[in-house]
Amino acid sequence: MRVPFILLMAFLLTGLTAAALAQDAPILHSEKPAGPRQTWELEPLWQVGGENDDHLFGVMISALNDDQGNVYLLDQQLSHVTMVSPEGEVLRNLSKEGHGPGECRMPQTFCLFPDGSVGLGQRFPGRFIKVDRQGLPAGNVDIGGENSPQTGYTILVSARYRGGTLAVGTLRQVPDEKGQSRVSHLQVMTADGAVVADLAEASTYLDFSKAHFVEREMVAPFIASSTVGPDGSVYLANDRNSYSVQVFSPTGQLQRTISRDFQNPRRDKRTMDRMNALFEEQDRQLPFRITWEVEECDQTIGELMVTAGGNLVVAHSRSARDLPEGVFMRYDVFDSDGRWLHELDIRCDADPDHDGLIWLDDGRILLVRGLQLARLTASGNGGQVGDETDGAELMEVVCCRVMAAR
């Protein structure tokens, strides 16, 4: 069973802004799909990394494509983005670890900005380190305003630019004598970091004298489960334990909520062990000891993708469970009006405990060997997370086109 890509240091509760709750928007609920299940097979086009390639990845966690078909691969450990041509040729690495112009440390996310630059999202202090497509410095975009011990600090945790909309997830930490208040936001921003609309908000307080962490109170669903469509609409999940996706306009109006009947399964032992490993990693890194509670179930909504045609593709907590032989993932597909069209099976040769898929905006899909463990390590705030059966195979990216199964 795969572990969703969570950000362990978020420490959040769920909650919508009052403005969003006040919106009078339709709820589009489905009991069953309108059509039969479909199956796609992945046909490899090229591969980078792995045992038989000179290119080495550290912790590669995210990918994007541009209008020319180039693919950009974000490596958190090596603090750079690898640019790959449409034919699979590694063109160059953009940025590197450091504090100089165009350099960053452990980027958590990245965007392709409208000025042609690549913005690597550095967690703290929250900012985008921008470089051009040749790797030359192109300035910075600071997120969250002033940072100081008195006013607090802003951490950049997620970002997505598409269709003229920049959606950014942040965590604001404000210390006091007993602990720390933490407020998370998912906001629409301009390309220079000014806030246009606040879509979702979540807050909690961490008392250092108790230091007892509860998973459901630490991770806001919308941090990991949000995306932007080709028209600039923002999609997000804001309830950990229900199948519900909210759709906002680029200016912050709640347009509709998409839901369906769903029963969340319990986690298996391997998943519980991996979740405990995340907390154990934090216990090793923090200057004080912690205790913790993990949830019996995964977050209901996992990743969200929107195709070029406007269909919403949803990965959920059953997407990798109880599947037929040869099927790697099962998604739900909704049309642009929120109607549940069908389930979609992806067939490929992959290990659901280790590997993962990244959907590109142009319809290609990346099969990334080692993605689950890479993202688990990234969410552990930089420490290696694994178990005795995980192995140490090199990460590999296989770019595929989709073929309807015969």
Textual characterization of the structure:
The protein has helices at 18-21, 221-224, 269-285, 371-379; strands spanning 27-30, 38-49, 60-65, 71-75, 80-84, 90-94, 107-112, 118-122, 127-131, 137-142, 153-162, 165-175, 179-189, 195-207, 212-214, 226-228, 234-236, 244-248, 254-260, 291-293, 301-306, 312-316, 327-334, 340-347, 356-359, 365-369, 396-404. It is built from 4 helices and 27 strands. With 406 residues, the chain is mainly beta. The model is unreliable at 1-22 and 381-385 (pLDDT under 50).
| Share of residues in strands | 35-45%
Percent in helix: under 10%
Total beta strands: 27
Rg: 20 Å
Shape: globular
Taking the sheet with the most strands, its summary is: 8 strands, mixed
Mean pLDDT: 89
Low-confidence stretches: 1-22, 381-385
What is the tally of helical segments? Answer: 4
Derived from helix and strand composition plus strand pairing, the structural class reads: mainly beta
- Distance between the amino and carboxyl termini: 28 Å
Reading side by side through the largest sheet, how are the strands ordered? 21-22-23-24-2-27-26-25
